[in-house]
Task: inverse folding
């Protein structure tokens, strides 16, 4: 299959065309501003955090005298300075704004030092003395689980009778394994800039995926109404889930300081502090028993998942739920029992990260199917195909949602052909037979990812479309731009709705004073939600103009067409600008709001059953690797991807998301290792020791094709969400590495993620 042409289009429409990202040129030229680039208001103080050096203990007191004596230091703020609730307005209501009485992880913030410049603040923060009586920390999920120490109650989801199915099963495998966490490593670190305005009003500039939540948290901590706080975010230099809640902490800390000292406060964490303070992807540990027949068909699964949540709930509930929802991935599980434990440990509070628990669910079943194939001596692709969801039967998930839009079989079969999977299997076997040191491996794995926030209420969005008298158009919506291209796609959608050139439309910074109560830009649904809301807002303006022009020409409003910067009626054609000017003169409303809520979704939070997702996004990847059996080092040689974005609104952006998501997923499963020592200190807290993929790690052959069909559900322009699903395509690399280890005579079943070179060598018995 050929990918659609990304540069040339015959359509006069903006959507479906590879428009350049709205900030690309400014970003490359260094002209795009981030929070830390904004001109500072006179009197701005800079903050630095004072962090706990102890994983768990009683905080008996602190002494900031030496810090306050440093020239340039203006103050210290701690728990006693929070005017409102000392507990953060987070969902679990279980995190103090600043630690008091107890400390619960290394890096927990006890207070801030404020100084005239940032380096003085950071130096002074080190001089604050903390009097802590250390207590033994709980650092592993196994220990937390043994003590039944959880941030939220366990969740059990079952269908059928897994125990009976396992008792009947011709074959049973029993195993346990672990996957690591992941640091977000956004290029722009966490930052907030807070300005006190007149009459106890506050302006917060935050690098956040969720301005509405930052507003709510700041208002709660300052004990002011939400309307007293305005939060703005022009863009983030990456969020990846790490700024869904964690950005709020910085804003609250800076706001408490700005309140106490009565001046603007900026807090920008340096990279090491960001690593130590903020949460990461949840590491998971699993144990399971799986039953299957001689053809590899699954017949029963009992699974226990231990999520390492860190010291507080944060988003751990919905993350662990999404892991449960994705244990099936692409496969029908008849008799299944899943137990999910949300373990409380003395670590950073782990949080959203691309995939939001989905990757930690999907990897379980992919690993199981790989092991079943090896156990039975079958090709793993055949075992995968054998277990796929069907279209008429075997099509209901373990949480009772029918899979109605299933394209798994044709998609996987197409990729198997275009990637020449079967021939390469044979070539690799032949290569390995001749090659004593280098061994290759191959794997093709699919993805099925549920699109919608699992918390149904978040699936709503608003937008404003303003048409100015010169015909230029400004859009504001509740979503945030983090590099994914949301503003570009929304501008394309609005341009098409109004029939104006793309260049006439601009999207402005997310701002809580424009569109209120917006959800986080997360769950990959930024364009689905905000794109539709903006489309509706534009439609209202267009309807006003159509009625106006219909009145002039004596035709029905339905006969008025908007295209190519012109407005056509059966009587003639007018320029967009002329109509806008005339409409203004006739007192026609040239701006409007739009509101969208996702239809069809519902689900029962207590049983985790229903239709949590509007639709599924699908994809598959075929990855080939080569390992060096003497050193454990390896390369990802070639990757072919076929991914489903529905009818793409912007193929260049979508392919960028697929490539980026894949490579980020590869990092999670290969080189990105978080190491906490026995004291609970994160020893990999800088790029010197924490290795994200570099350009040199990107496979030489990385081909991305787009599935040619539109979304079968009524989604904006027939598109599908793309932000997170491709992340899980990287599980093909994990499976290919295990294949290579197996072909080298190693123990593939023992491999944990990340599969570092050391892990490869260990599995080879080296
Ligand atoms: N792409 C870039 N460049 N930067 C990011 O921070 N975040 C990812 C994904 N792609 C991210 C990204 C995550 S975690 C999500 S949920 C989606 O983008 C959010 O944006 P969307 O809903 O508009 O796709
Ligand atoms: N995905 C991402 N973020 C979220 C979700 C979700 O499903 N639910 C709450 N926050
Ligand atoms: Mo993405 S993890 O839903 O911000």
Result:
């Amino acid at each position: 299959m050929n990918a659609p042409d990304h540069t040339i289009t015959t359509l006069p429409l903006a959507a479906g065309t590879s428009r350049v990202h709205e900030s690309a040129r400014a970003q490359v030229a260094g002209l795009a501003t981030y929070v830390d680039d904004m001109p500072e208001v006179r009197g701005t103080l800079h903050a630095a955090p004072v962090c706990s050096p102890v994983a768990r203990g009683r905080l008996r007191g602190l002494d900031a005298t030496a810090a306050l004596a440093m020239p340039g230091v203006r103050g210290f703020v701690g728990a006693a300075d929070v005017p409102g609730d000392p507990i953060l307005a987070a969902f679990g209501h279980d995190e103090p704004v600043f630690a008091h009485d107890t400390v619960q992880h290394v890096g927990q913030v006890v207070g801030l030092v404020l100084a005239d410049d940032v380096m003085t603040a950071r130096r002074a923060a080190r001089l604050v003395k903390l009097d802590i009586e250390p207590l033994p920390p709980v650092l592993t999920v196994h220990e937390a689980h043994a003590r039944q120490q959880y941030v939220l109650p366990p969740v059990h989801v079952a269908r059928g009778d897994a125990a009976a199915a396992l008792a009947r099963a011709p074959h049973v495998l029993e195993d346990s394994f672990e996957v690591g966490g992941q640091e977000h490593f956004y290029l722009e670190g966490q930052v907030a800039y807070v300005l006190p305005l007149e009459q106890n009003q506050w302006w917060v500039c935050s690098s956040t995926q969720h301005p509405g939540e930052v507003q709510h948290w700041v208002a709660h901590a300052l004990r002011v109404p939400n309307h007293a706080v305005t939060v703005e975010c022009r863009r983030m230099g990456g969020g990846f889930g790490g700024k869904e809640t964690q950005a709020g902490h910085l804003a609250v800390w800076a706001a408490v300081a700005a309140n106490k000292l009565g001046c603007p406060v900026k807090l920008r964490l340096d990279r090491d502090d960001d690593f130590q303070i903020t949460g990461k992807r949840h590491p998971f540990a699993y144990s399971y028993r799986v039953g299957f027949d001689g053809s590899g068909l699954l017949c029963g699964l009992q699974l226990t998942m231990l999520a390492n949540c860190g010291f507080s709930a944060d988003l751990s509930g919905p993350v662990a739920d999404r892991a449960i929802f994705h244990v099936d991935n692409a496969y029908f599980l008849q008799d299944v029992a899943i137990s999910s434990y949300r373990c409380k440990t003395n670590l950073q509070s782990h949080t959203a990260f691309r995939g939001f628990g989905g990757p930690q669910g999907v990897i379980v079943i992919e690993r199981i199917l790989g092991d079943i194939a090896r156990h039975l001596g079958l090709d793993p692709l055949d075992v995968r195909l054998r277990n796929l969801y069907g279209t008429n039967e075997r099509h209901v998930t373990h949480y009772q949602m029918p899979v109605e839009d299933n394209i798994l079989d044709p998609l996987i079969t197409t990729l198997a052909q275009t990637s020449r999977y079967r021939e390469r299997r044979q070539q690799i076997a032949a290569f390995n037979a001749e090659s004593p040191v280098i061994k290759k491996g191959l794997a093709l794995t699919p993805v099925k990812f549920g699109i919608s926030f699992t918390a149904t209420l978040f699936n709503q969005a608003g937008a404003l479309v303003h048409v100015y008298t010169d015909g230029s158009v400004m859009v504001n919506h509740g979503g945030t731009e983090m590099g994914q291209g949301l503003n570009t796609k929304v501008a394309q959608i609005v341009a098409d709705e109004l029939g104006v050139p793309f260049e006439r439309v601009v999207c402005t910074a997310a701002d809580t004073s424009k569109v209120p109560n917006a959800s986080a830009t997360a769950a990959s649904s930024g364009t689905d939600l905000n794109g539709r809301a903006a489309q509706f807002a534009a439609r209202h303006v267009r309807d006003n103009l159509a009625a106006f022009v219909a009145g002039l020409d004596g035709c029905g409003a339905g006969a008025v067409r908007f295209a190519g910067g012109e407005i056509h009626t059966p009587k003639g054609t007018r320029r967009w600008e002329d109509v806008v000017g005339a409409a203004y003169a006739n007192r026609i409303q040239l701006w409007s709001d739009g509101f969208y809520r996702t239809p069809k979704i519902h689900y029962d939070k207590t049983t985790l059953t229903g239709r949590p997702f509007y639709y599924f996004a699908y994809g598959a990847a075929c990855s080939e690797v080569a390992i060096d059996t003497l050193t454990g080092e390896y390369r990802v040689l070639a990757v072919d991807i076929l991914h489903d974005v529905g009818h793409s609104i912007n193929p260049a952006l979508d392919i960028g998301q697929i490539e980026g998501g894949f490579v980020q997923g590869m990092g999670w499963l290969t080189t990105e290792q978080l190491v906490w020592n026995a004291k609970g200190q994160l020893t990999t807290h800088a790029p010197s020791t924490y290795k994200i993929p570099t350009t040199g790690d990107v496979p030489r052959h990385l081909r991305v094709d787009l599935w040619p069909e539109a979304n079968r559900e009524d989604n904006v322009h027939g598109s599908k969400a793309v932000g997170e699903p491709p992340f899980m395509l990287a599980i093909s690399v994990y499976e290919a590495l295990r294949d290579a280890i197996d072909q080298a005579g190693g123990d593939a079943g023992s491999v944990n993620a990340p599969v570092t070179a050391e892990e490869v060598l260990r599995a080879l018995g080296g």
